[in-house]
Design a protein that fits this description.
The chain is of the alpha+beta class. It has 13 helices and 12 strands. It folds into 4 domains: 109 residues, Phosphorylase Kinase, domain 1 (2-Layer Sandwich), CATH 3.30.200.20; 121 residues, Transferase(Phosphotransferase) domain 1 (Transferase(Phosphotransferase), domain 1), CATH 1.10.510.10; 49 residues, no CATH class; 121 residues, no CATH class. Bound molecules: adenosine-5'-triphosphate and magnesium ion.
Amino acid sequence: MDEHEQPRTDPADRLTVTAAPSGDASEDPATSLLALPWERPLEDWPAEVLAALPRGISRHVVRFARMGAGVVAVKETTEELAFREYRLLRELEDRPSPSVVPVAVVTGRTREDGTALPAALVTRHLRFSLPYRAVFSERMERRTLVRLMDALALLLVELHLEGFFWGDVSLSNVLFRRDAGGFAAHLVDAETGELRERLSTGQREHDLDVARVNIGGELLDLHASGLADPDVDAIATPDLFVESYRQLWQQLTEPTVFPRGEPWRMDRRFRRLSELGFEVEEYSLRAADAPGMMVAQPTDVNSGYHRRSLERLTGLHVQENQARRLLVDIEAARRSWDPFMDMDHAAHRWVIEVFDPVVRSVPLELRAKLEPAEVMHQLLEHRWYLSEARGQAVPLDEAVDSYVETVLRARRDEDALAMHPTTTMLRAVPAPEADPEG
Ligand SMILES: Nc1ncnc2c1ncn2[C@@H]1O[C@H](COP(=O)(O)OP(=O)(O)OP(=O)(O)O)[C@@H](O)[C@H]1O
Ligand SMILES: [Mg+2]
């Protein structure tokens, strides 16, 4: 320090928040974040500013804090790493692969006595998300395990298609959200990632190797703390994940060889991909080695086909499987209203006459249990079971009442599962009996 310079004592002097403007000054993240006690180590933040939410294990100190009307995750790390991860997450924001949304980097933190504190990365708390330990605290059926591995494999395929090399694929670096009976995995920790034009096979294989080792280790940890069922195999489960990844990758990228005169074979292939939730944005077509044959190969594939279709039709922002499920329901409604009605019109009417009333009929005190699209999905399942049992279609209103009372009320709150960071409290929450997902 220059000898003429006065030592600074006000921690606010050097505090810098780097964030994108929100477009609404009253809710600007940089301004709202200044209200948090940055002059104290994250570990010592007072309960008034914190939100008690389930948190995975981490090397860094991570806390959930209230910011305006929302909740943010704050991670203490070095300035360099915080900016690196922030910029990567910002780039991923515009891509279809689901990841947590970055809010800001806070630097220049000092204590009252002037000593330096680590920088912090702030991300938006992902609502209704479950760390894997919370997912495992429920009775884990093999079916559920397979779905978890499929969700993680899908996320890695999506990221690899975007040219994202992760470097640290693991269960604790993702968050899971329920997605129409399955799960959707979201990337939460991008610290080791790199975004490239495209990935080599070697880079993808490296991520798979890392994933295999990490998932195996995490399952052994779960066994050691008594959280996983004995039949959750720490060796075979990572293989489930790798198989799921390879199968999907192959379906999305392998070439189709077909006779020159049968171009519809290509369309059929592309339609299969959209059923899987992927849209071919670009493909290459060339003559095959064999005479009279052609080779078509997708060169740019985007995930989120159903998600985007539903959003275009209804403005609803949901996850892929939920979107797939809701689109089926809109189509069924359309046919029952008028087989000649167009899909835009039907979707609009469905939101007003079906979706909104269902969401509104969930009593306020039960709204933290599940997100609306998942409620809608479960309700549709419930109505189907009721109708099966009765041998005739059960009206929507009746199904809603029955669902709310017998299924939803019995669930734990997943949006605000209050718990201790050690996972033991999770075990005290019994798996609800009437849960159609088991
Ligand atoms: N935006 C968020 N929403 C919900 N939970 C979050 C969010 N950010 C972090 N978490 C929780 O905090 C945990 C730790 O975060 P993260 O993995 O980024 O830190 P870390 O593990 O210390 O980093 P590293 O893996 O480099 O050591 C996550 O597993 C997750 O449970
Ligand atoms: Mg991590």
